[in-house]
Each structure stands twice: as C-alpha cells, then as structure tokens.
Design a protein that fits this description.
Shape: globular
Strand content: under 5%
Number of strands: 10
Radius of gyration: 41 Å
Length: 784
Amino acid sequence: MTGEQSGATGAAPQAEAAATDAKPAPGRASAARVGATSTATAATHDEPPGTTAAGGDETAEEGRTGGNDSGTRTAGADAKHGTGGPDGDARTESRTAGADRDAAADAQDRTAGTDRAPRNDAQDKTAGTDPDSGTDAQDRTAGTDPDPETDAQDKTVGTDRGPGTDTEDKTAGTDRDPGTETDGRGEAGGTDGDAPADRWTAFGPAPEPVLGRARRTGRAVGRFLVHEWTLAAVATLVVAAAMTWPTLRYPRYTLPQDYWDPSLQAWQMAWSGHILRTDPAMLWHSNTFFPENWSFAFSDTLLGYAPAGLIGVGPEQAVLRYNIMFVLAHALAAFGAYALARQLGAGRIGGAVAGASFAYAPWLLAQAGHLHIISNGGIPLALAMLARGHGWSLRHGYRPRRRHAGWALAGWLVAAWQLTLGFGIGLPFAYLLAGVGLVAVVLWFVRRRRVKRPFGRRLFLADLVGALVFAAVGGLLAIPFFKVAELHPNAARSLAEIDLYSPPASGFFTAPAESRVWGGLHEGARAVLPWHPEMTLLPGFALYALAAGGLFFSVWRVRHRLFLLAGVLVTMALAMGTRFLGGRFTYVPLFDYLPGWNGLRTPGRMMLWTTLLLGLLAAGAVTAFCMRVRELAAERVPPWPGPWLRLATLVPLVLVLVEGLNVTPHPVVPRQPAAMRTVDGPMLVLPSSQNLDQPVMLWSTDRFQPMVNGGSGFTPNSQAQVREATVSFPDYASIDYLRRIGVRNVVVLRDQLGGTPWEGMLDRPVEGLGVTREQVGEAVVYRL
C-alpha cells in the first residue's frame, strides 16, 4: 500500500501537468459544452428509447437523469443503482472518485474514468463498456479513444480527456472501486457537502420543465382565453348588450319595440320547450287556435330555440327568455359575419366592420319585433364553416391542403339549425345552398378527369351527409307548412299583397324611426312610404361609402369585387319586389315557380343579403387600409404605428356602430290576469283580434290550456267565425255555437272592452241561458 501511495503521489503532478497542457481554450470548451448539452437534450426528446444519438449517449439514460448536471450527489446515488449521471468537471470528479483509486489503473483508464481491475469490475449495463481486462475497451457511450497517449476530446460531453484527467463518462461515469465508500447522499470518501456544479452549465439551454396536470390545464385554459375566436365571442356579446340596451334593463317586464309580435314569439319558444318535455308528438298542434290542427305552423316557429324553452315556466320567464335570445341573436349575427369575412381573407378590423354592419344595420331596427328576422347569424356562420371546410377564400383561392371535412359537416349542421328558426329568411338561404351545391357537383364532374378526387373522399362524404341532413330537416319542417297551405288556402300570399309590401328605391336611403342618428331626419321620407316598417331599408351611409371604396381599393381581386357588386344589385332588385320593372324578371318568376316562395310576404327582407355583401366589400377596403397603415409604420423607428394611425384604423368600425344606435321603445308587457292561471280550457278570451290575442298567448304559458285565441300571419276561417258569432255574447246563439265547437269557458277582460265590438257585453243578462258568471280579479268568467 505504501508503494502504491508513493506511485500515486509521483504520478499526480505529472497527470496534473499533462491536464493543464492539454486544456483547451475557454471559448472552445464553452462551445463544446453548449453543443453537447443541446445534443443530449435533443436525444432525450426526439430519439426512441434504446437508440444512441450524438456519439452514443443513451436516450433512456438521459431521460432518467433528466438532462441536468446534478454533481456528485446524483452520480453517487446512481452508482448504487447501476446508472450513470451527468458529470462535473475533471477536478470535481478527481475529488469524488480519486481517494482510493489505483494509480496505474487511473493513468490507464483516462476515458471512462472507472477502476476496471479484474478483481472487482462487473459488467457496466448502462454505459456498455467491456470490463474483461484492465485495459478499457472502446467506450460505446462516450465514443472516445481510450489510448493513454491520445488526448481525445469527448465529442458527446464536450470536455478535455487528456492524460491524467479522470473524466467521468457522461452516461455511466461512476467509480466502481469498492474502496470508495459512497453514502446515500452521493458524498464520496466522507467528503461533507455536495460537489460544485459544472461551470459550463449556465451556457447550455435550460431544460424543459416537467409540468403537472394542473399547470398543463392552466396553460390550455389560458391559451383558450386569449384565442382570437374566444375574444371575438366575448366582444360580440358585450357589444350586443350595449347596442340593444335597454333590453336587459328590465328583462322580465319589457319587450323591444312592442308587445304584440314579441309576445307571440315568446310563446313560441315556451310552447316548443313545453311540448318537447311533455308530449313531443303534439308539437305542431298547439294550444292556440282551438279547434284547429297544425296551428304551430301558422307562422315561423323559432323551433331552433326549443332548448331554451325547456328552462322556466310562465309569462315572466317567457319574456326573460325572449330578451336573452334577442341579445344573443345580435351577438351571433355579428360573430357569424366576422367569421365569414375572416375566412374569406379580411383582417380583424375588416371582419369587425363586416360583423357590425350585418348585425346593426339601421334597417334592422325596424325588425326589432321580429326575432325570426333578427336571428340570422347562422347564415354567415354556416357559410364561413363551409368555406373553411373546403379550403377556399376570396383572397387566397382554393387551397386543398386546408380542406377539413369536419368544418364542412359543421357548416351543414349550422345551416340546418338556421332553417329551423323560420322559412322567412331560411328559404332563400336554402335555395342559395342548393345553387352552390349544384355548382360544386358540376365542378366535381368536370375536374374528376384532370384531378384525382378534387374534393377528397372524406370531404365528399361530409358534404353528402351534411346535405342529406339539411335536406331532411328542410323537408320535415316543410310538411306542416304545406299541410297548412292545403287546409287554409287563404294563408297563401298573392301578388297584390306582395305589391303592397314592395318598397320603392328611395327606401334604400331611408332609415326607420328607431334609428337614433337618422330617425328624426328621415321622418318626411318615411311619410310617403305606403308601409314604412317594411320599406325603410337603409343599411347605413358609412357602409355605402366603405363598400364603394372597396370597389377601387381592396384586398379582393377585381373579379371578386365585381361579383360582390353584382350580388348587391341583384338582391336590391329582389328586395324591391314588384317595384323593379314590375318584378317580371326578378321577383315574380321566383314567386310563381319556386316552391314555398309564395309564402314570403315582404320582399324587403332580401335586404339581409344586400347588407352582407356590402359588408364584405367594406371589409376588403378596411383590410387594405390597415395593411397600408402597417407599411407606413414599418418606415418609422421603431416600426410601430403611432396612436393616430391606430385610431384611424378604427374609424370605419366606429362609424358603422354609431349608425346602428337605436331609440327602440321597450313597453311593459300587460300583466297576466289571475283568471288565466285558474280557468280551464277550452276557453275563449274576449275581446279578440290579431294584436289583442298575442299577449293572451303569452299569458297561457303557465298551463297551456286550449284556447280559441291566437295571432299569426293569417286568420283561419274558424277563428274569424268565432269572433263574428260572439259579438252578441252572451246570448243563446253565441253560447250554442261555442258549446258545439267545444268551448267551456269565456274570459272577458273588462279593461280592454272599450272601442271594440264587445264593448257593452257585460251589461247583458245571463238568466235562462244556462251559464254562470263570476268575477275573478279584473276579469269576468262565463262558465258555459
């Protein structure tokens, strides 16, 4: 032992001197260390287990060690388990492993840095070294030359392995001499404290942190919250609440514009939810218009809102539901048009202009009482999804790599849902999709010889399934309406009625009275219109100006601008009904030959498509303007648009929103009479008329008892006969007629009799008629 110590003492200075002479320049060593660390990290994440990378480092071992330089503590702990860890520098390893090392073996084994004496050298399973003799074979892990005379730089670890330098192998790197005692903390030879970290670690890339499930979930939620579509959805909701104010101020007690048509539509949502929950087979046979069948199909049904109708019971809940859906409909319209403009290639601000102009056009303020017209957001949203699924946009054309069958199928499903809200705007949309589908089939047939599967098999199947679903939904919804047309011929529209609601050309420049900006100024122009609620069709002067600019300055190609302009002119001509050349070449052929078109009463609602096309033209102009602003900003130092340039890009959006401000009245809904909560049906509520019956329908949402009352787009003959027969009520003839049709109770609203044909009925005697009369709250109930 004394001789070995002397030999070791004499050999140490020589080894230290050789290590000093062979030490590379700091810059080169730093670069080598950084490269090695990067290679080890890449191997850990990209190579499969059991393969070698960057000179032989085992990926599995790198994965277990975590790719971090843990010093002697990790190395000592790994030595007990047969796995190596990342090393420190040569001097650290000498202090760790060199206390009891055999000097001769230390000088000989300069590459692996392990004592490989035959008496104690076991097979190194981690590093893959050959322990057969005292001479170390080629280290398969480090990939270095073990010749004692060779000063080999370890290309994997990036350290100097000169003579006398006991450099630990990057993967194995442990002293297996039993003479070296290692405690559980990895402290060799009784040395207190951990060895210092590798000084080159600071220059390597930071290891990727291992995130727990909570942090991964948090990051995913964070990415979702800042995504463009999340922000767009939130923005459209906030803007909708502001632009429709004060709809949500008293949402249980007021309705926008008036309480006639909104009461009818509030009842429709309540009825669909109630009947789907209780007896879905009776969906189309509602509690109104007794004893008529198919009465739910007497007007557009808003059936797509049935899920909302499942929540809440009674008039107050029905009014609250209506107001919420009224605001959400505006938000969906803006979001859908924004999505369509973005898909077609517009920028964010351009898309916002398209969305705002589509949802808050001044002419739509006159439709505030028609939720089935306001609920149009499914149209642009479905078109955006279909365009996305087919990889097509106006700006970039057809890009097959962007095709996505899922988006195409979703577009068809949204289109089918839009159709369930009503045929008033759904029927033109259905014919548009049919035309687009026909064009797509023709293109597929033409291109199938030149291009293999131009649409792709999955996309073709998605279109086929989606189109079948859309057609099935439309067909099933059409059955009740065709049945109503068969049973009630007076429900069909005539050309004379179409002529009555056809607006002149001046209507395109006239705003409704509900417009805050233009309503008062256009009072004279409205006075000359025969029916101004359906003839004030101004989409906004700002939108006109932006669309006109989009014809000359836009990101759309010239042919696309001309196509959009042609669409604007055609839809305007259709919106004029019989006022444009008598409708002989525009509206009348559609009225005569397209199934279902003769059920559309108001041609002016075609303005919806005009507004959408104008919005796309404006979006192209605004996008081009924003691009020009960025080009100007790039010339600045730093290249960032100044505050005035940033504000300038928002001016078009602000102008469009300002023109959409409203002064829509929000009247209080008449309170439900107490008799409506107690009297059973079948019943008749007097007085009765189109407008008076619509609040009565709303009052019935507590119990949905059968009633003769009801309001719709037409008056059934049976209801007209009941009204005529009961003008003299109570008398023998009227009571006998009511008993024959099944009516058991008559509720008379005392405070509404003035000015109606039933004004003096409460003064008539009932003796000898076999009926009883009692006061229930403010109403008088006759029990037949």
